[in-house]
Amino acid sequence: MARMTGGEAIVKALAREGVKVAFGLPGVQLYGIVTAFRDEPIRFITVRHEGSSTYMADGYARAGGGVGVAVAVPGPGLLNASAGLNTAYSASSPVLLIAGQVPRHQIGKKIGVLHELDDQLDAIAGSTKWRHSIMQVADAPRIVREAFAQLRSGRPRPVAIDMPWDTMEEEVDVTLPAVGPHPAPAAAPAADVDRAAEALLRAQRVAIYAGGGVNLSGAHAALAAVAEHLQAGVVETAEGKGALSDASDLSLGAGLFPKSPLRRYLDAADVILVVGSRCAIAMFQPEQQVIQIDADADEIGRNHKKTTGLVGDAKATLEALLERLRASGKPRASQTAEREKIREEVAGFMTQEPNSSILRSLRQGIPQDATVIAGMTQIGYFSRPFFPVYHPRTYITSSYSGNLGFEYPTALGAKVANPNRPVVMIAGDGGFMYYAQEMSTAVQQGINVVAVVFNDNAYGNVARDLDEHWGGKFAAELHNPDFVRLAEAYGAVGRRAKEPAEVGKLVADAIQMDRPVLIEVPVGRMARPVFFSPLKTLPRYQH
């Protein structure tokens, strides 16, 4: 038992859980916790906007750094941080938000104290799997322990805790209980694995559909082994890119658009093994048998009725499944030639310009082990089906949340997780300007991310769609700063491409600088990606 404040109790509990980094913006209701970070081996990175704190925590977590921790003041600070929580929720990313709260005796009184927000944890209920208030200092270690149990069990979505201002500064005797390892993620029940193995062995043609759950659980080697044994090509979601290296013929990539050869490949399978995906856009044929591995029981069969579920950790379940498959017979005959032909067909769709030339240039300039943050911009969209990925956790999107602006702070978090690995962010001018001020953080903290900003002086996707399908440009054109001078004003390096296809060389050079770098790539309007569904145009706007 030791005497400590509420803030110290939280931070000591974080350290005992192995936390190394926290991202946040200090405020008056957080003095008790911010000062506690000074006394523990946890790096506290001060951000320039609370929204960045959760994005950075998410990038840190998804790049492999462990649980991402964000700290925010109550009320407006928590609300600012909520967009990053929403992205982490959509990507099943283990992020812990710690928020301050108004003093205990003023909670719920509606008297208008500083940063008051009634039921503030309810405001983020849709973006968290678990929430809890810590009202007494002595309860902090237990509740932090439960938060980490939630983060490390089942589906690893964000959780949140808050603590009143006075509790955070109150000093009492606190017992820090012994902390052992959390239970290892469990495989699906053996009987379910046996039934799934029998169905896969009976099938004439097996295909595999891999989502972000493969990356989250580290199931890459087990997935490759199962695919090799079954000679099943692996189709990935955008979040699942890197589940298998695109250097392997087993990987068919993430180009599942309507006319893609991957659609034909999946449709021809009589059994599809799904690993760590909601299957929200998979659109399997109604009669196809799906075997779905997922840590979240609620996801089993949500988007396909004919589904057999394996509820468990992807890595542990695939390893159990592999053992059962190997015990039942030899691997199937090689289907390499068929898969290589499909890979060539998919590559043949990469003809749209200037997107294709830009993407090839980027791939040539970015090391294979670098982490890429693929933003909500034309080249980001184009990268989903056509950008090869060779290592796990090296391709990060905003998942179904689709947040504009997530790119730069997420990249900073990913770089903190892996300081010796290059990190390259791809964004448009509109998205980058959401959090351009975090270049200050990058310079101050030595977070050497390369930011590639495609500048068309517009919210380009929206401007094109409005112009071509809704009667003309409206409300989507932008006035931007000189991006090179903006970077230099923050103390970063600024560069500007003379033509879009030289971006790869500029990126390669920027990585060697080992400094925060912004590369502006001036571009014009880009055509709607060939794999996007066509937009309908009202008759009055047809021309």
How many β-strands, per DSSP? 20
Query: Which consecutive residue ranges, at least 5 long each, have pLDDT under 50?
Result: none
Question: What is the global morphology?
Answer: globular
Radius of gyration: 24 Å
How far the N terminus sits from the C terminus, by CA atoms, comes to 77 Å
The major beta sheet can be summarized as: 6 strands, parallel
How confident overall, as mean pLDDT?
95
Overall description:
The protein has about 550 residues and is α/β, with parallel strands linked by helices. It has a six-stranded parallel β-sheet with strand order 3-2-4-5-7-6, sandwiched between helices. A six-stranded parallel β-sheet has the order 11-10-9-12-13-14, sandwiched between helices. Strand 19, helix 20 and strand 20 form a beta-alpha-beta unit. The relative contact order is 0.11. About 35% of the residues lie in helices and about 15% in strands. The protein has 20 helices and 20 strands. The chain starts with a strand and ends in a 21-residue tail after the last strand. The radius of gyration is 24 Å and the shape is globular.
